[in-house]
Amino acid sequence: MTTPLGAEIARTFGTPAVVVDLDVVEANVARVQGLCDAAGLANRPHVKTHKSPELAKLQVAAGAKGITCQKLGEAEAMADGGLDDILISYNLLGERNVGRLGALLKRARVTVAADSPVTVDGLRPAAAIAGRPLDVVVECDTGLKRAGVETPAEAVALAKRIAATPGLTFAGLLLYPPPDRWPETQGFLDTAAAGLAAEGLKPRIVSTGGSPNLKNLGALNGATEHRPGTYIFNDRMQMAAGVATLRDCAAHVYATVVSRAGPERGIVDAGSKTLTSDPGGLDGHGLILEHPDARIGALSEEHGFLDLRACAAKPAVGDVVRIVPNHVCVVVNMVDRLVAVRGATIVGEIPVVARGLSV
Amino acid sequence: MTTPLGAEIARTFGTPAVVVDLDVVEANVARVQGLCDAAGLANRPHVKTHKSPELAKLQVAAGAKGITCQKLGEAEAMADGGLDDILISYNLLGERNVGRLGALLKRARVTVAADSPVTVDGLRPAAAIAGRPLDVVVECDTGLKRAGVETPAEAVALAKRIAATPGLTFAGLLLYPPPDRWPETQGFLDTAAAGLAAEGLKPRIVSTGGSPNLKNLGALNGATEHRPGTYIFNDRMQMAAGVATLRDCAAHVYATVVSRAGPERGIVDAGSKTLTSDPGGLDGHGLILEHPDARIGALSEEHGFLDLRACAAKPAVGDVVRIVPNHVCVVVNMVDRLVAVRGATIVGEIPVVARGLSV
């Protein structure tokens, strides 16, 4: 069964197509902005999810204080698109990156993260190039074992080093708290804040991350801002994390059933080069709205293999189906444009300007 | 420890960078062409691995009979780049695809695959648009449960349908034999060939697929051509399949160590948006040449998380390392260009022209 919109998308753009409903996008943006406002936190959305200046501007227009980028290339694309007040939550290393950072700092407000003396020491030329100081936050790990110093003492030592480096300004702390371990994060933060105070340092920014942490907004005493990313589109991971429902999922992969070679199996034209192999900790590689009992059990590059054993009504060859991806951020990064709809109407295309800008 | 080439690549292109050694590429192309020649099989390399007309031409210049594409967009890009004799090993459905196929057929020799009557019947307008007949092969599944009819009887029935459809020509059979079950494939093929003969049909093409099947070249009586893809670059999967060694791996992801927040762990700047989450059935997400005992145990979008417990010599922040990816085909599809080297010398860039052309 193909919806009229599915048929129109296949006819106009072909499949697979990544389609976003702007009505849902706007509702998501407004809802999370409201949550941040209510919690007294600045909202600094992470653009890695959409990689689109157009959508970043929509977030800023709704009240976001600035944006977060993971890579320098994303930040440059956002500055090109007119965005300002950009936090790059990444250790930038090497003369090429630091040179680019300096050039970016000349034309935009930029804050960067660091979790080691090597990073901090290397950042110094950026300020010289820009002719103005560079804000640096200390990235702290409070349990997820991502980037970030592991102890409050290390955080304080790195903050001191930043403050002592000409051209750099200690701006605060960057955290990605484990969603289920906020008390530990509070302990880390309190100890670090006390240590900083003893050194005469005060974190202007205490930034927390993650759409899954939206349910914990306001729980961390001392936090000043939050960096949600996925909330603009949502996906199966956010549903599993309990911060979104199916209605909040703005992005769907439209795919065509291209094979039904066996009675209990089928194939769609979205494989690992569209849905990606990122499992997101979930079973199957996406949820097919028309056939929720179908399991996308495996992927090859351009094929998604459907196990239809549990399906009462099975799809036919030629059907266009809608798939809620497991992890939308990596799916959006596979395509050069998103198809924009409102309800059942195609309203345009959104270029994924920063697609693939991992450098 | 960073090699001089690693330092130069980081300085010139930044990391992560996907770097291919053209000396190794040329050796791989020559070796596999020799294997096909020795087995009396035409070589029809699959371009999904490199998505580059430039590299496809190199394969043709070395003796390949034509090329294989998985998607229409790839085939269009290859025809734009001057390639001809293109097999699209995919069920193409829908008026948009069939219209494009007709336009492509007007300017290039094209063969397409089908595994259902719906696909076959839908292809008819392509020949009318092109003003010449379209060659169609029947895709057969002999055990991997990918696309393809499951029985010789179905193959014969579909061949008859193709032959009976105005504008379409039955061209043969397309197979991807399970690498460890060639006798079953032989049985399928023999039965199908007998059935076709009884109908007065003869498969001009019997095409087998897969770089892992290079070790089985010549094993299938009746095969006329092979479609290897990954062999041009190779990767950890091909090593695991026993058809390549580390010396045959032409593509490396150059990445920078950006964090060493714990004594037994580290982070490189290549995450799932570079290495992809495709595990390829292997442990870890790539092999670090400088630290083969490091395990890339997990990925976030722009971070590769290293477990360094088994490493005697651990990498330092700022080191540039080389990673052999698990599955190179999906990695190449993440970037817009490859950095080309010969040994320790950068010789240019190769645009990944068909990157992301999944439609």
Overview of the structural elements:
Two copies of one chain form a homodimer. Chain A has 359 residues and is α/β, with parallel strands linked by helices. The first copy, chain A, has two domains: 4-20 and 243-349, D-serine dehydratase-like domain (Lyase, Ornithine Decarboxylase, Chain A, domain 1, Beta Barrel), CATH 2.40.37.20; 46-228, Alanine racemase (TIM Barrel, Alpha-Beta Barrel). The first copy, chain A, is built from ten helices and 17 strands. Chain A has helices spanning 4-12, 22-39, 53-61, 72-80, 95-107, 117-130, 152-164, 182-198, 236-240, 328-332, and strands spanning 17-21, 42-43, 67-69, 86-91, 110-114, 134-140, 168-175, 205-209, 225-227, 251-262, 265-268, 287-288, 295-299, 304-307, 320-324, 337-342, 345-351. In chain A, the strands form two sheets. In chain A, strands 1, 10, 11, 12, 13, 14, 15, 16 and 17 form a nine-stranded mixed beta sheet that branches. An eight-stranded parallel beta sheet of chain A has the order 2-9-8-7-6-5-4-3. In chain A, helix 5 (95-107) links the parallel strand 4 (86-91) and strand 5 (110-114). The interface between A and B is large, with 65 and 66 residues.
